[in-house]
Design brief:
Layout lengths: L3 E4 L2 E4 L4 E7 L7 E8 L5 E7 L6 E3 L7 E6 L4 E6 L8 E9 L15 E2 L3 E6 L1
Parallel strand pairs: 2-11
Antiparallel strand pairs: 1-3, 3-8, 4-5, 4-9, 5-6, 7-8, 9-10, 9-11
Length: 127
């Protein structure tokens, strides 16, 4: 069973930065595409950013484009989400997710295709 553990969430003022980390229990170089989703209270869980197994391809959702950056270090079995210029509307629980995928030129944004999930980490941005 693949396990994902997120860390790095917290309380930050608007305009600040946070870096989320997600450690995967298995060798992430083994063709796991990774993604970050977020869920605000009373809202659906939304795709934030995704990265292919080698890191060759990335995709960032429009609301975070230019402010957030997803990256990975397969040698450390870790995926990151660098979040800059944070806004109050970024407040949510952030989830790391993984799916087996050998495709390296595309990022899938469909939530139902991600089989493995972390427990989530809270990010709160104050105004």
């Amino acid at each position: 069973q693949v396990q994902l553990v997120e860390s790095g969430g917290g309380l930050v003022q608007a305009g600040g930065s946070l870096r989320l980390s997600c450690v995967v229990s298995e060798d992430t170089a083994r063709s796991y595409a990774m993604a970050w989703f977020r869920q605000a209270p009373g809202k659906e869980r939304d795709f934030v950013a995704g990265i292919s197994w080698s890191g060759r391809s990335t995709y960032h959702a429009e609301p975070v484009k230019g402010r957030f950056t997803i990256s990975r270090e397969n040698a450390r079995n870790t995926v990151y989400l660098q979040m800059n210029s944070l806004k109050p509307e970024d407040t949510a629980v952030y989830y790391c997710a993984a799916r087996l995928s050998s495709a390296d030129n595309v990022v899938v944004r469909t939530i139902l295709t991600y089989k493995y999930w972390g427990q989530g980490t809270q990010v709160t941005v104050s105004s």
